């Protein structure tokens, strides 16, 4: 196999007649250009006539987008909301955290009116959440209203790492006491 | 003048001994060559390197003759100051001359020239960066001139653009900077510090210095600064010379970026081994 | 820079761009027309020279104060010129506190750039004792109202104020021991004037759509991503040039913009000179500048 082509930002790749523009590229006057320094990659998708051309660079830095799954650490919990520091976007670890916010009504999909924030999150918990919107100038708005989203790692009052026992409870292996959390049903992600 | 209380500043009104000596000659040697033996439209040797600051998201180092510039890029990160919500990202630039970079010692606090330079570099880079790809976050670019031997602003533009590309910030194009010094009829590309425009030395006639930032593959000018007095035709001619100078530096920048990508970014074969998609490496 | 002053809807933007395309702007001007300019000099009595200028809705007040100081060691035979721009909160609430600082720095850098040449203003005329004493001209620009095209308005006002500046005559005498003494003339009318013939004016060309306009109103400034500020002298020399804004320009349009900048700048220079001379000869009684 020939060595993959390395391109730099602004390099003209192919005509839009031959390919569709994918990640890391942009279209200008009927041609696809690269906007990253990385490897050019063409890929055929089922049900599409034209292959997609992408430029891939591992160091690509992610920012949270609407719909992306983020990992965060709970920093504070109040009656109406829970604040967290977003440390990962999808599978990229961020160098610096972004601020996120889970409102009371976005914690779970059912019985939204009966959510009690203190029974869902505690400071220090690691949560998986989906970005609902870019929010305001300060925070991203996050939601855990899916079975797969919520607390994935939490420490008990005794300081031990708890194991989930139901969607709303976690148990401390040391003392056996149960604590309330909005537990995520962790799924193995397909590589 | 407000001083930085955390540092011990030298005496405010001290002078380097050069001040009292003979002023340096600006003019070229007889016989059409310049002091360092270059032709009028020759560039100095350029050296570029990426990934010099390991803490930063991306970084670059540049030498143009004796001019040495280092740039570090951080981000995209959260906008620090309380500002309004924007769907576009923000770019912040800070240009600093190291205190020992020039003949005259510079202060730690950003002076007017540095502030002006920061703005020029920022406006040179802004058209090139896809700001809509990182809403409500900012990318910080810090540029330090380690040694100023002329054309520092042009070098800062090129170096910052290389740093951004190394950081993997999405860009429409890279930016290349280049300067021209106009002295009477003569046009010197990529002037050294002795050839640079100094308003106090000049007399009548066409004289000035032009710096251009070019997006080479889109053929767009993103920065243009002219100091001094030039006739309209001369000014246009100087801009054209700058553009051709930029196009001379572009292949070097491109080579540097390609080789650093090959070196630092894991190649596609390993990646397509992991993924189950029917990956096909394109070669056009 | 003017993004602080308001926002424009897409429809408004399109209206302006289409108008510029047809050489007819929303206030009826063609692309290379200036708005009405009013200039008045000698408006503040405590200064050595002052001017107030109104360009459309942009309102500038400039005061020049001459003080004595030490020259730069690098240029012992020259006086100094210092620019300070103040975007007061009068012009826009956005400028409150440090809000106007960024814009103020931009404007003073632009002024510095066009004055950054020996042939602009004869600074040697400001020398009193070489290496010892010189005149320092503090040019303070106060932005009272910001209605677009700030750079041009400021440069016009600065030139008018410098034209109006009168520096007291001083006599240097040396006593027997070689000690030099500076003596100020007793006659308040015994003054020196500055030669401002070579002082450039800034012409800002804003790229809107595929064309460019001079003297953009603030609505038009919001439509333009890239501007070129060109310093133009009376003789049509380009004195300082800078691209501003977050957009880029293609080389061909830069050459066109420089050309029309020169054309407009020469006319502007001669018109300002006419107006200043006419005002000086008219001997009209001054009745406060906001009248």
UniProtKB/TrEMBL annotation, chain A:
<dbReference type="InterPro" id="IPR039771">
    <property type="entry name" value="Csl4"/>
</dbReference>
<dbReference type="GO" id="GO:0005730">
    <property type="term" value="C:nucleolus"/>
</dbReference>
<feature type="domain" description="Exosome complex component CSL4 C-terminal">
    <location>
        <begin position="93"/>
        <end position="134"/>
    </location>
</feature>
<feature type="domain" description="Exosome complex component N-terminal">
    <location>
        <begin position="6"/>
        <end position="42"/>
    </location>
</feature>
<protein>
    <submittedName>
        <fullName>Exosome complex component CSL4-like</fullName>
    </submittedName>
</protein>
<dbReference type="GO" id="GO:0005737">
    <property type="term" value="C:cytoplasm"/>
</dbReference>
<keyword id="KW-0271">Exosome</keyword>
<dbReference type="InterPro" id="IPR019495">
    <property type="entry name" value="EXOSC1_C"/>
</dbReference>
<dbReference type="GO" id="GO:0000176">
    <property type="term" value="C:nuclear exosome (RNase complex)"/>
</dbReference>
<keyword id="KW-0963">Cytoplasm</keyword>
<dbReference type="InterPro" id="IPR012340">
    <property type="entry name" value="NA-bd_OB-fold"/>
</dbReference>
<dbReference type="InterPro" id="IPR025721">
    <property type="entry name" value="Exosome_cplx_N_dom"/>
</dbReference>
<dbReference type="GO" id="GO:0003723">
    <property type="term" value="F:RNA binding"/>
</dbReference>
<dbReference type="Pfam" id="PF10447">
    <property type="entry name" value="EXOSC1"/>
</dbReference>
<dbReference type="Pfam" id="PF14382">
    <property type="entry name" value="ECR1_N"/>
</dbReference>
UniProtKB/TrEMBL annotation, chain B:
<feature type="domain" description="Exoribonuclease phosphorolytic">
    <location>
        <begin position="43"/>
        <end position="169"/>
    </location>
</feature>
<dbReference type="GO" id="GO:0071028">
    <property type="term" value="P:nuclear mRNA surveillance"/>
</dbReference>
<comment type="function">
    <text>Non-catalytic component of the RNA exosome complex which has 3'-&gt;5' exoribonuclease activity and participates in a multitude of cellular RNA processing and degradation events.</text>
</comment>
<dbReference type="GO" id="GO:0000176">
    <property type="term" value="C:nuclear exosome (RNase complex)"/>
</dbReference>
<dbReference type="InterPro" id="IPR050080">
    <property type="entry name" value="RNase_PH"/>
</dbReference>
<dbReference type="GO" id="GO:0006364">
    <property type="term" value="P:rRNA processing"/>
</dbReference>
<feature type="region of interest" description="Disordered">
    <location>
        <begin position="1"/>
        <end position="41"/>
    </location>
</feature>
<dbReference type="GO" id="GO:0016075">
    <property type="term" value="P:rRNA catabolic process"/>
</dbReference>
<keyword id="KW-0698">rRNA processing</keyword>
<dbReference type="GO" id="GO:0071051">
    <property type="term" value="P:poly(A)-dependent snoRNA 3'-end processing"/>
</dbReference>
<keyword id="KW-0694">RNA-binding</keyword>
<dbReference type="InterPro" id="IPR036345">
    <property type="entry name" value="ExoRNase_PH_dom2_sf"/>
</dbReference>
<dbReference type="InterPro" id="IPR001247">
    <property type="entry name" value="ExoRNase_PH_dom1"/>
</dbReference>
<comment type="subunit">
    <text>Component of the RNA exosome complex.</text>
</comment>
<comment type="similarity">
    <text>Belongs to the RNase PH family.</text>
</comment>
UniProtKB/TrEMBL annotation, chain C:
<comment type="similarity">
    <text>Belongs to the RNase PH family.</text>
</comment>
<comment type="subunit">
    <text>Component of the RNA exosome core complex (Exo-9), composed of EXOSC1, EXOSC2, EXOSC3, EXOSC4, EXOSC5, EXOSC6, EXOSC7, EXOSC8 and EXOSC9; within the complex interacts with EXOSC2 and EXOSC4. The catalytically inactive RNA exosome core complex (Exo-9) associates with the catalytic subunit EXOSC10/RRP6. Exo-9 may associate with DIS3 to form the nucleolar exosome complex, or DIS3L to form the cytoplasmic exosome complex. Exo-9 is formed by a hexameric base ring consisting of the heterodimers EXOSC4-EXOSC9, EXOSC5-EXOSC8 and EXOSC6-EXOSC7, and a cap ring consisting of EXOSC1, EXOSC2 and EXOSC3.</text>
</comment>
<dbReference type="Pfam" id="PF03725">
    <property type="entry name" value="RNase_PH_C"/>
</dbReference>
<keyword id="KW-0694">RNA-binding</keyword>
<feature type="domain" description="Exoribonuclease phosphorolytic">
    <location>
        <begin position="34"/>
        <end position="168"/>
    </location>
</feature>
<keyword id="KW-0271">Exosome</keyword>
<dbReference type="GO" id="GO:0034476">
    <property type="term" value="P:U5 snRNA 3'-end processing"/>
</dbReference>
<dbReference type="GO" id="GO:0071038">
    <property type="term" value="P:TRAMP-dependent tRNA surveillance pathway"/>
</dbReference>
<dbReference type="GO" id="GO:0071028">
    <property type="term" value="P:nuclear mRNA surveillance"/>
</dbReference>
<dbReference type="InterPro" id="IPR020568">
    <property type="entry name" value="Ribosomal_Su5_D2-typ_SF"/>
</dbReference>
<feature type="domain" description="Exoribonuclease phosphorolytic">
    <location>
        <begin position="199"/>
        <end position="263"/>
    </location>
</feature>
<protein>
    <recommendedName>
        <fullName>Exosome component 7</fullName>
    </recommendedName>
</protein>
<dbReference type="GO" id="GO:0071035">
    <property type="term" value="P:nuclear polyadenylation-dependent rRNA catabolic process"/>
</dbReference>
<dbReference type="GO" id="GO:0000176">
    <property type="term" value="C:nuclear exosome (RNase complex)"/>
</dbReference>
<keyword id="KW-0963">Cytoplasm</keyword>
């Amino acid at each position: 196999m020939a060595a993959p082509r390395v391109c730099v930002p602004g390099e003209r790749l192919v005509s839009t007649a031959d390919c569709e523009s994918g990640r890391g590229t942009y279209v200008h006057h009927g041609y696809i250009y690269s906007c990253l320094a990385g490897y050019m990659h063409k890929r055929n998708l089922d049900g599409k006539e034209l292959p997609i051309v992408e430029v891939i660079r591992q160091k690509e830095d992610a920012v949270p987008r609407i719909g992306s799954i983020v990992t965060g650490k709970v920093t504070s919990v109040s009656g109406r909301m829970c604040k967290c520091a977003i440390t990962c976007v999808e599978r990229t670890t961020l160098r610096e955290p972004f601020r996120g916010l889970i409102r009371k009504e976005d914690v779970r999909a059912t019985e939204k009116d009966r959510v009690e924030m203190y029974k869902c999150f505690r400071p220090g918990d690691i949560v998986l959440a989906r970005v609902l919107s870019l929010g305001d100038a300060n925070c991203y708005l996050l939601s855990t209203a899916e079975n797969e989203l919520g607390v994935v790692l939490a420490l008990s009052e005794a300081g031990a790492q708890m194991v989930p026992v139901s969607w709303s409870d976690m148990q401390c292996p040391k003392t056996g006491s149960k604590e309330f959390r909005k537990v995520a049903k962790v799924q193995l992600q397909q590589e | 003048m407000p001083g930085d209380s955390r540092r011990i500043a030298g005496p405010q009104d001290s002078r380097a001994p050069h001040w009292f000596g003979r002023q340096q000659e600006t003019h070229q040697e007889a016989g059409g060559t310049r002091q360092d033996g270059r032709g009028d439209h020759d560039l100095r040797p350029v050296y570029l390197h990426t990934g010099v600051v390991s803490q930063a998201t991306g970084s670059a180092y540049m030498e143009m003759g004796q001019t040495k510039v280092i740039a570090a890029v951080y981000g995209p990160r959260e906008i620090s100051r309380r500002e309004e919500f924007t769907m576009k990202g923000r770019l912040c630039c800070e240009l600093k001359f190291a205190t020992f970079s020039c003949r005259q010692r510079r202060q730690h606090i950003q002076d007017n020239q540095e502030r002006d330079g920061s703005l020029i570099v920022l406006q040179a880079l802004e058209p090139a960066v896809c700001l809509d790809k990182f809403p409500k976050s900012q990318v910080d670019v810090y540029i330090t001139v380690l040694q100023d031997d002329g054309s520092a602003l042009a070098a800062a533009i090129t170096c910052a653009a290389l740093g951004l590309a190394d950081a993997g910030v999405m860009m429409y194009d890279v930016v290349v900077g280049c300067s021209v010094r106009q002295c009477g009829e003569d046009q010197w590309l990529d002037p050294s510090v002795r050839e640079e425009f100094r308003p106090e030395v000049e007399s009548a006639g066409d004289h000035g210095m032009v710096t251009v930032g070019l997006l080479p593959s889109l053929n767009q000018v993103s920065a243009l600064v002219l100091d001094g007095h030039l006739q309209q035709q001369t000014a246009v001619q100087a801009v054209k010379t700058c553009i051709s100078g930029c196009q001379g530096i572009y292949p070097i920048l491109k080579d540097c970026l390609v080789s650093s990508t090959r070196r630092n970014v894991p190649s596609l074969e390993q990646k397509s081994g992991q993924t189950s998609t029917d990956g096909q490496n394109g070669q056009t | 820079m003017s993004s602080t002053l308001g926002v424009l809807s897409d429809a408004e933007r399109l209206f302006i761009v289409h108008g510029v395309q047809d050489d007819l702007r929303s206030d009826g001007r063609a692309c290379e027309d200036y708005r009405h300019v009013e200039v008045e000099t000698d408006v503040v009595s405590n200064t050595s020279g002052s001017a107030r200028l109104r360009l459309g809705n942009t309102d500038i007040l400039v005061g020049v104060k001459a003080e004595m100081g030490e020259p730069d060691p690098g240029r012992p035979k020259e006086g100094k010129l210092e620019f300070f721009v103040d975007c007061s909160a009068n012009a826009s609430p956005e400028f409150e506190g440090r809000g106007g600082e960024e814009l103020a720095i931009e404007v003073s850098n632009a002024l510095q750039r066009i004055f950054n040449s020996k042939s602009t203003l004869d600074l040697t005329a400001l020398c009193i004792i070489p290496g010892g004493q010189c005149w320092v001209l503090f040019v303070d620009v106060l932005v009272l109202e910001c209605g677009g095209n700030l750079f041009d308005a400021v440069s016009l006002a600065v030139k008018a104020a410098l034209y109006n500046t009168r520096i007291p005559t001083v006599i240097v005498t040396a006593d027997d021991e070689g000690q030099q003494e500076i003596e100020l003339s007793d006659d308040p009318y015994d003054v020196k004037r500055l030669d401002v013939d070579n002082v450039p004016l800034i012409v800002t060309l804003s790229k809107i759509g595929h064309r460019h306009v001079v003297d953009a109103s603030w609505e038009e400034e919001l439509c333009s991503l890239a501007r070129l500020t060109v310093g133009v002298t009376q003789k049509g020399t380009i004195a300082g040039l800078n691209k501003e804004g977050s957009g880029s320009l293609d080389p061909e349009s830069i050459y066109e913009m420089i050309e029309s900048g020169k054309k407009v700048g020469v006319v502007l220079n001669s018109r300002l000179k006419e107006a200043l001379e006419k005002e000086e000869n008219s001997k009209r009684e001054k009745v406060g500048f906001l009248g």
